[in-house]
Design a protein that fits this description.
CATH superfamily: YaeB-like
Distance between the termini: 54 Å
CATH topology: Elongation Factor Tu (Ef-tu), domain 3
Structural class: alpha+beta
Shape: globular
CATH class: Mainly Beta
Order of helices and strands: EHEHEEEEEEHH
Largest sheet: 6 strands, antiparallel, barrel
CATH architecture: Beta Barrel
Length: about 190
């Protein structure tokens, strides 16, 4: 049996999340709602190039994490300004409902990539559209965290925030399939 704990509660039949805040950003639409749509090769490449450019621009913009003031009054952000980077978990609230039933697809809709399970991708289309981004913390003003590097759509509910700590998150000998390495190279090209 699950018992009520403070302001938060969980149920024996499942779970529920309560947002801790909301994203304010210049990103108004999800970038990859149609990421697994079948497209011809030329359309895939052109869309992919456009997405890379848009993604790079979005990551440079300053966004705000507006944290529930009741939580801030209770001290939830105390000490956060001592960290340069944060992990932000948020809900992809504008994802298409059919995206929640998707179990396999070609990453980025590219047929030159293998058909893989959604858990082998970073796609926002997943059973629970919980997304994770590492951001740079620029400053804290009361209940507002100003950050760069956030790819969340304006209005996205924030699920949680954790400090980025290399000792916990840095790993060595990372293995990735060739198609993911290609995506990283393409995103990092100038």
């Amino acid at each position: 049996m699950c018992r009520k704990r403070g302001k938060f509660d969980s149920t024996p039949d499942g779970m529920w999340l309560s947002p801790v805040g909301t994203v304010r950003s210049q990103v108004k639409r999800p970038g990859h709602d149609n990421a697994f749509r079948d497209l011809d090769r030329d359309s895939q490449i052109e869309r992919h190039k456009a997405n890379i450019k848009k993604y790079k621009e979005e990551r440079k913009q300053v966004s705000e994490l507006i944290i529930d003031s009741r939580l801030v009054d209770d001290g939830i952000l105390d000490g956060i300004e001592d960290f340069s980077h944060l992990l932000v978990l948020y809900w992809a609230h504008l994802g298409l409902p059919e995206g929640r039933t998707l179990t396999r697809g070609h990453p980025l809709g590219r047929k030159d990539f293998p058909l893989v399970g959604i858990f082998a991708t970073r796609s926002p289309m997943r059973p629970n559209p919980i997304l994770l981004t590492t951001v740079r913390l620029l400053e804290r003003r009361d209940n507002v965290l100003r950050v760069t590097g956030l790819d969340a759509v304006d209005g996205s509910p924030i699920i949680d925030i954790k400090p980025y700590t290399p000792g916990y998150h840095e790993v060595h000998d990372v293995l990735m399939p060739e198609w993911m390495e290609l995506i990283h190279r393409e995103f990092n090209e100038d």
